[in-house]
Amino acid sequence: MSWPGEDWKVGLPAQALRAIAEVEQHLARLQKERQQKQVQLDTLEAAMHKQRQKVGRGAGPGVLAGRTHRGFCGSSLGPPHTCL
Predict the structure, then answer these.
(1) CA dihedral angle for residue 14, residue 17, residue 22, residue 27, rounded to 10 degrees
(2) Biggest alpha carbon–alpha carbon distance for the chain
(3) Higher pLDDT, 62 or 53
(4) Spatial CB neighbours of 17, under 8 Å, sequence gap ≥ 6
C-alpha cells in the first residue's frame, strides 16, 4: 500500500514500521490472490458461455441422451459390462 508522499511514516517507532510493512505485504498478497481468482472466474465464465452457445445451437436430444448414458455407465446402477 503506497500513499502519495510516504512522509506520514517518518518518525514512527521501528515496531510500528514493521507492523505497517507486514500489513502492506499482506495487502499485496491479497490483491494478487484476488486478481488470480478474477482471471480464473473470467475464464470459467467464458467457458460456460461457450458451452451454452454450443447447447443452444441445436445440440439435439441425441447428444444429451448420449451424455446421460455416459453419466450412468460410471455409476453403480447397472452392470459395468453393459456400458458402451
Answers:
(1) 180
(2) 78
(3) 53
(4) 9
Based on C-alpha coordinates, what's the Rg of the chain?
A: 27
What is the rounded average pLDDT of the residues 40-55?
Answer: 96
Cβ atoms of 48 and 41 within 8 Å: the answer is no
d(CA 4, CA 8): 10
Q: If pLDDT is split at 50, 70 and 90, which confidence band does 71 have?
A: low
Q: Would you say 12 and 20 are in contact if contact means Cβ atoms under 8 Å apart? A: yes
Evaluate if residue 37 carries a pLDDT over 70: yes
| Helix (H) or strand (E) segment spanning residue 25 | helix 14-56
Please count the other Cβ atoms lying within 10 Å of the Cβ belonging to residue 66.
13
Half-sphere exposure of 15 (CA within 13 A, CB side): 0
Three-class SS of 43-69: HHHHHHHHHHHHHHCCCHHHHHHHHHH
